[in-house]
Amino acid sequence: MLSVALVDDEELVRVGLRSILESDPEIKVVAEADDGRGALDIVRRHHVDVLAMDLNMPGLDGLGVLKELRHSPDTPPVLFLTSFGAGGQVYDALEAGASGFVLKGDSPGELLRHVHAVADGHAAVSSPVLRCLMRSALARRDDTLGPTARSRIESLSNREHEVFVLLGDGLSNADMAQQLLMSEGTMKSYVSRVLAKLKVSNRTQGALLSAQFTRWRRDSA
């Protein structure tokens, strides 16, 4: 049974999220809070497998909570609830250690998949958020591609490089496989090899590096 805590300053949103989450027999909502300070209190008082939290809240927001929690050994994976247009905040939250991002308008099934994914230690980002994140990465003027990253990218085979570039488009394995005319299982293996060669810990970080590479190649042309 996965224990989940909900943090959102709107009670109606929490009620809806609780209903969706507890429709899954493997999930139990063990605590709720309406602000960042409440989120910190939940983590101190409860064992939580996933902290599902609004990114934007009055006072201490979701990013502030994550920054306070990241040095704690008992910090649960944080799944942020966000909306369109929050690319810069999502980028900052990812750098601070967020495990996943889901749009408040995503389907109930998408939310449940994300909760299970981050509980299992995976990064989980809904496709619209990932595309927003890529645009934010490309827009950052301080976003440079260092020699170590370039060396790792150069170590990729031609096919691995094609997969690496597609990661930056925020596509699923199925969509990438269709573009490169291979099976989804083969694509999954390629993605794993690419991430290992790049020495990044998850798909989202690989996608960010791909966005950095795209901008660096464009600016160097």
TrEMBL record:
Annotated ranges, domain Response regulatory: 3-119
SUPFAM superfamilies noted in UniProt: C-terminal effector domain of the bipartite response regulators, CheY-like
Annotated HTH luxR-type domain residues: 149-214
Keywords, sorted A to Z: DNA-binding, Phosphoprotein, Transcription, Transcription regulation
Gene3D superfamilies: 3.40.50.2300
A matching Pfam family: Response_reg
Residues found modified as 4-aspartylphosphate: D54
PANTHER family with a match to the protein in the record: TRANSCRIPTIONAL REGULATORY PROTEIN NARL-RELATED (PTHR43214:SF24), TWO-COMPONENT RESPONSE REGULATOR (PTHR43214)
The name this protein goes by in its record: Response regulator
Species this chain originates from: Streptomyces mauvecolor
Source taxonomy: Bacteria, Bacillati, Actinomycetota, Actinomycetes, Kitasatosporales
